[in-house]
Amino acid sequence: xxxxxxxxxxxxxLRDAEQTPGASLNVAEKLEVAQQLARLKVDIIExxxxxxxxxxxxxxxxxxxxxxGPVICGLARAVAKDIDRAGExxxxxxxxxxxxxVGTSEIHLKGQMRKGQEEVLKMAxxxxxxxxxxxxxVEFSPMDAARTEPGYLFEVIEATIAAGATTINIxxxxxxxxxxxxxxxxxxIIAKVPNSDQAIISVHCHDDLGMAVINTLAAIKGGAxxxxxxxxGLGERAGNASLEEIVMALKTRQDxxxxxxxxxxxxxxxxxxxxxxxMGIAVQPNKAIVGANAFAHSSGIHQDGVIKQRNTFxxxxxxxxxxxxxxxxxxxxxxxxxxRHRLQALGHELEQEELNRVYEIFVxxxxxxxxxxxxxxIEIVGGDPGESTDHYELQYLHSVSGTGTVxxxxxxxxxxxxxxxxAAWGDGxxxxxxxxxxxxxxxxxxxxxxxxxxxxxxxxxxxxxTVHLSRAEEKVRGxxxxxxxxxxxxxxxxxxxxxxxxKSVKEEHQTV
Length: 512
Ligand code: KIV
Ligand code: ZN
Prior knowledge:
Elements: E1 8-11, H1 27-40, E2 44-48, H2 54-66, E3 71-77, H3 80-89, E4 96-103, H4 106-113, H5 117-132, E5 138-143, H6 150-162, E6 167-172, H7 179-192, E7 200-205, H8 212-222, E8 226-229, H9 243-252, H10 254-257, H11 269-279, E9 296-297, H12 300-308, E10 327-328, H13 336-345, H14 352-368, H15 374-380, E11 392-400, E12 408-415, E13 418-425, H16 429-441, E14 446-454, E15 463-471, E16 474-482, H17 485-511
Parallel strand pairs: 1-2, 1-8, 2-3, 3-4, 4-5, 5-6, 6-7, 7-8, 9-10
Antiparallel strand pairs: 11-12, 12-13, 14-15, 15-16
Helix pairs in contact: 1-2, 1-11, 2-3, 5-6, 7-8, 12-13, 16-17
This protein binds 3-methyl-2-oxobutanoic acid and zinc ion.
């Protein structure tokens, strides 16, 4: 593998993706993302647009000073004050790059800039020369290149390389290109611009037609050696080419493409989750590589295949992107193979007859629920939670909560043959109900864990609460279901109390 086949990964999450409405990050958050990007070993981090705000300036400055490894880049329009600001922000960075750009398509020249081709060409050259006075590494982008008249585009590229640009980035700013056309454009740039061998040709594709990644790959085949992309494909409008998809396509189909990157693919999932959390933009579940379902199998046939031999239905291994393992989602479509596999992982080795019995219960439950979880299985096989009794019964529950109200609850429990009523307040209605039940049964019980999820969909969904309680060394789990989540919570607590009774009785017998 020669260096000619190496593709540089330029991450613009902190610049292009950060322009997404509502997704802006503060300096500390940007530093955290930049640290993850350095761990991922991207080649270049575009850290921001220093002239756009003091915060962006500070982020570029701090990232340039503190992040080791990648080249740190600052964006600047082809105007003097932008370039000065970028140069200033990057002055302490050991490997700085200034990325300057100007629109070159007729649509941009006439519709936005109201300038002629000659004038814009001069602006581009002057910008590159000025950027060169700050650092050797200068990138120039003829914005909207994909819609720029090719003859003029070649002229601008030749002139900016002559002025010292070391990277020429070809943006498909509005996501208009199609793969063959875009790949051919890159081939033509390389063939027709006489000094094109003196710069790296880069591409920057937007996803307006859902083709950002495929256009980037076509451009790489055409000779581009830098791909501009973002974590989770975030960016202006429909976003930019997704970093994880480009990297994993090149890695997984190395046989077809024949190119490499320096990215440590095992680090992919961490920045994906971090960026999603910090920007408040959830990753769609079916998103390639990093979506929650990307390695989750739900059809019985697929589950059976993957359990027998992973590559029957998986082209990448979860660990290659930093995930623990393939997920076998147990639903009504799952077969015995998937059930047995999951039960084995939970420590239950069942004979065929017992497996058939458990499978029947499983299917019945799976028909009622969207997904069957480990704790459901444990309960089906009669394991962990222990038997229940009806020593405690929830007879009455009244809870009060709302804005400006102290949450309170009144409960009436039957305990053995007695009836006890108590009221309490708490941090929320569930806390209040639990406090009231705790008072009613008068024992020192601790809530170790509480989880709630919807079993069915819609606003009338059944809520299922699982609560883990402990009393001294004894630990139990209880479960409650209701369309009223406070009631489901109280039922789960009472269920756990009943299991505690059985557990104590059993232990007494064992010690006698
Ligand atoms: O989409 C675009 O053209 C850009 C440039 C600044 C490179 O983001
Ligand atoms: Zn862009």
